[in-house]
């Protein structure tokens, strides 16, 4: 009962009026910031660069991430995106007409709303004068949306950007077979009854077998879980290690949820259903329970199971990004700067999920920081095995020298700074939306736990990867 | 006790391979000396699983030789005697090779069939012990698992294979004219069913791991890993071992059953096979097919059928006995020796004896997008060579590009490539009509029309745009390279590369060097050819080089025989039943009558009377009537799209009648005709060797078999010349004894013209 009470209280700022929120936030955050040890010396005081505009995150929200097939299952992707946008409007109270541009990331596209950013923006009540486009880059689609926005601001083209991402795995486009489609299209063109009949006579029953969207890598036809299992084996990551890591993720997520740390979550009243207020995939279990599961991809001896993989998720996120001076002019107190970022790509077969390994040293180098400068790591957790393999790769001189063309390893992130509020394994991973969650988690953690620099990194299908430095906005 | 432990830790420290595995306890039951003397096998224990690693020293492959076998048995006996060990894993430490087969030299050194039979008996006994092992043995297969290697694997209780392209299982003994002699003919049918076993043993085909799993030949697959904390290959083998150890444990703990779930079709099949009548029908069918395909020229397939049949119908004992006896008999046959000779020759012709070229050729340019040009492009791009395909016209270029694409796409249909790999390979090809980018080319191969002045023109054009180091290779089948090189500013960079059509199927590449060709140019051409997957012979320049020159006198004899009134169909059946893959008349049609005419005239001029016999007039008249062979739809036969059985072109009757020559009865029996053809071939091959066109007899054999389809059962012309009682040859050459005289030394003059024509 008490927990329920505290829960509503904690959610109060999210749902209640802007003024109240403004009041609450400085209270809860400033003390934290002051408490943060400023003793640690950084390689750089700030990552601000001369002659380049500072880009800030004013705030970011997400609707609760749900396991696919649950409360969002009857909705369409733009409904989720719309909810995230509405949440952002409520949270930030940003005047709609100052938004210059809207960018959303998504992976599995609903054919009817292929530019889901535009449909959602219109539905969320944004000005029809605000253009919107959709980007796709597998699991780093939202990151791509954000960095596209950064580019537009830094180059002076825009001042205010809304970036976000959405994924609805409860419904995916299942198509007719190519043969069937071809026949239907030709039927469209057929003019006479004779032509139609002759076309129909070519129909065979196998035309009806549907075409499912491939869950496999196009270039290699390998499913991601399979690749993750091979990756874990290549780095000799044991099943137990993977299960332990997954358990950590779920436990930390549970703790963060219970303590109300996941403040980026905004409630979503699902039409015809209850109001969804929290992520539903967090399920701390026991190692014994997890050990009972059979491998999901490489049977019967693989190590990747349902319990140590991220699950199919529905969800959406949105972020308000501005040029610093614009944010200040509008009276905002930004949460963080978005600093240097990199995209990397490598062999999509054997190194499909090693994006963070490649991206981390590169972005640190670019920013002039070291691993020690980072106070909060937020990595996308596709699979336990993937995270642990990345750790091992980052900690290997041999790998750095032979595959990354570097002299030495970058080192693996200290676990106590790593995904402290859970990760994709436990919170869920709506492909197109995760990027914004990572950045907001890093920004919120820096504010809450103290510290200056956060590092966000993620892998993506196609053997690509991304990393970005998030710098806390000074109090 | 302490001592043995000390030895254990010592050997752990010394054997680097073992050091890599944490938790690896090396045990040496018979003391350190035994461990040190073992050179092929090392062995250790993980928990209660013995891991036996095969690694023959100083070799890329493991072969089952006597040494390895005895070490293996020694190790297995220790394992069986040990209380600590409950199961075992067999694995190779060599990436890319489990066991490539038995040591052929072991057979070659045997003098009698009894000796060979004895080897087989020993093998059978060894593998029987494995089969009956009280402790389960898991074969962990990565790389080639062929011949004796396969027989070893199927004697084990369980098989796990890596699912990569290098991992192939097969029983290729038949290709060497022998049979699987270590229980293979007995075990394989039980494991994969009689029809599949016949298919494997009679074709000798390699079976990829995923297919092997479907057939029930292996029980589990392990995916190859990418790089981790060590190189991918190394880690994959380690992983395979880890998985195999888990399964070995599971088997000894009875948690895993070795019984496989059979599908409905398998069940039906095995039910059908339990009916004697069905079995008899299968034997009969297979035998018929084999007889039809081998024309009775190869004894091994029939003996394989026999050995399988004996085992199934009369029980194991009789089966093993029959297998080993037939193995002994086959090893002594001429056919087997011929095939093994070719095998050795092929291995030799896959090496670059000219050393590493100064600059590795990475950028290729091919002139002419015809059948040959596009074919060369196809075998280049799929090995990762950046290739420019240049043609004079857009239509010609398009045709060539389509040919390359189709070649690759056919592989996709056979699942040898993924569509993605196809696309990425195809991106190595640049089609163009100009010389753009030739400044980067390391080698230009011209495959333009066979016309000297045209070749001169392109050579000059190309030399104006290519860099200094670039090799100019001519793909010509008959034009002398020195004549082509005559207009070159840099003749040391000019060489001949004679490919055979269809390029992606024919394994041979004949490289032709002139006196001026530099060694580095040759090395570069051989390196490119090897990269393209070719078997290579390097010959000296001269009219017709080696292959075309050998073919020409035989073709002359073909014309003569046709002039004598032998029907094309009859001639074809005589040649194919002698072991040629294509009938002689069909061959003329396939090569192209105009080409044949061209070559006959040119070489006739160059060599004179020795190339006589048939009348070139025949070809001339055919060309003038437009009977150019398959490409024009008519030659000796009529070719129609979609019609399989071709009919004789009746319009030829008039031409043949006008050029009729009366046959000589003393050399006109079927056998005589066959020998008349083959001896003219052999004669010319030996002449090439004598004149130094060929550097080695081996290259002569390989060139003839792989490029021209010379009967493999004869081992190639030089092999045949040495080994065969060339009765026909002797008779044809009037008993003047070139055969006898030259057989030993190959130096004396070979009598040039076979008798049939001299006495004309």
Automatic annotation (TrEMBL), chain A:
Q: Which GO terms describe its biological process?
A: fatty acid beta-oxidation
Q: What Pfam families does the record tag this protein with? A: Thiolase_C (PF02803), Thiolase_N (PF00108)
User: Which SUPFAM superfamilies does this entry report, sorted A to Z?
Assistant: Thiolase-like
A GO molecular function for this record? acetyl-CoA C-acyltransferase activity
- What are the subcellular locations of this protein? Endoplasmic reticulum; Mitochondrion inner membrane; Mitochondrion outer membrane
Annotated CDD domains: thiolase
Pathways per UniProt: Lipid metabolism; fatty acid beta-oxidation
Spell out the GO cellular component terms annotated for this protein, sorted alphabetically and separated by semicolons: endoplasmic reticulum; mitochondrial fatty acid beta-oxidation multienzyme complex; mitochondrial inner membrane; mitochondrial outer membrane
Question: What enzyme category does the UniProt record give?
Answer: transferase
Q: What is its main location?
A: endoplasmic reticulum
Q: Where is the signal peptide?
A: none
Record domain Thiolase N-terminal: where: 55-325
Q: Keywords in alphabetical order, please.
A: Acetylation, Acyltransferase, Endoplasmic reticulum, Fatty acid metabolism, Lipid metabolism, Membrane, Mitochondrion, Mitochondrion inner membrane, Mitochondrion outer membrane, Transferase, Transit peptide
Query: EC number(s) in its UniProt entry?
Result: 2.3.1.155, 2.3.1.16
Top-level division of the source organism's lineage? Eukaryota
Domain Thiolase C-terminal as annotated: residue spans: 332-471
* Catalytic reaction(s) noted: hexanoyl-CoA + acetyl-CoA = 3-oxooctanoyl-CoA + CoA; tetradecanoyl-CoA + acetyl-CoA = 3-oxohexadecanoyl-CoA + CoA; butanoyl-CoA + acetyl-CoA = 3-oxohexanoyl-CoA + CoA; an acyl-CoA + acetyl-CoA = a 3-oxoacyl-CoA + CoA
Q: Which family does it belong to?
A: Belongs to the thiolase-like superfamily. Thiolase family.
Q: What's the stated role of this polypeptide?
A: Mitochondrial trifunctional enzyme catalyzes the last three of the four reactions of the mitochondrial beta-oxidation pathway. The mitochondrial beta-oxidation pathway is the major energy-producing process in tissues and is performed through four consecutive reactions breaking down fatty acids into acetyl-CoA. Among the enzymes involved in this pathway, the trifunctional enzyme exhibits specificity for long-chain fatty acids.
Q: Can you state the subunit structure given in the record?
A: Heterotetramer of 2 alpha/HADHA and 2 beta/HADHB subunits; forms the mitochondrial trifunctional enzyme. Also purified as higher order heterooligomers including a 4 alpha/HADHA and 4 beta/HADHB heterooligomer which physiological significance remains unclear. The mitochondrial trifunctional enzyme interacts with MTLN. Interacts with RSAD2/viperin.
What is the name attached to this protein's record?
Answer: Trifunctional enzyme subunit beta, mitochondrial
Organism, per UniProt?
A: Mustela putorius furo (European domestic ferret)
From TrEMBL, chain B:
What are the subcellular locations of this protein? Answer: Mitochondrion inner membrane
User: Which pathway does the record list?
Assistant: Lipid metabolism; fatty acid beta-oxidation
The cross-references to Gene3D superfamilies, in alphabetical order and at most eight, read: 1.10.1040.50, 2-enoyl-CoA Hydratase, Chain A, domain 1, NAD(P)-binding Rossmann-like Domain
Site Important for long-chain enoyl-CoA hydratase activity — annotated at 151, 173
Organism superkingdom: Eukaryota
GO terms for cellular component: mitochondrial fatty acid beta-oxidation multienzyme complex; mitochondrial inner membrane
Entry keyword annotation includes Oxidoreductase:
yes
**CDD domains cross-referenced by the UniProt entry:** crotonase-like
Q: Which InterPro entries match?
A: 3-OHacyl-CoA_DH_CS (IPR006180), 3-OHacyl-CoA_DH_NAD-bd (IPR006176), 3HC_DH_C (IPR006108), 6-PGluconate_DH-like_C_sf (IPR008927), ClpP/crotonase-like_dom_sf (IPR029045), Enoyl-CoA_hyd/isom_CS (IPR018376), Enoyl-CoA_hydra/iso (IPR001753), Fa_ox_alpha_mit (IPR012803)
The record places the active site at: 510 (for hydroxyacyl-coenzyme a dehydrogenase activity)
User: Which GO terms of type biological process are on file?
Assistant: fatty acid beta-oxidation
Q: How does it assemble?
A: Heterotetramer of 2 alpha/HADHA and 2 beta/HADHB subunits; forms the mitochondrial trifunctional enzyme. Also purified as higher order heterooligomers including a 4 alpha/HADHA and 4 beta/HADHB heterooligomer which physiological significance remains unclear. The mitochondrial trifunctional enzyme interacts with MTLN.
Q: What is this protein called?
A: Trifunctional enzyme subunit alpha, mitochondrial
- In its UniProt entry, the species of origin is given as Mustela putorius furo
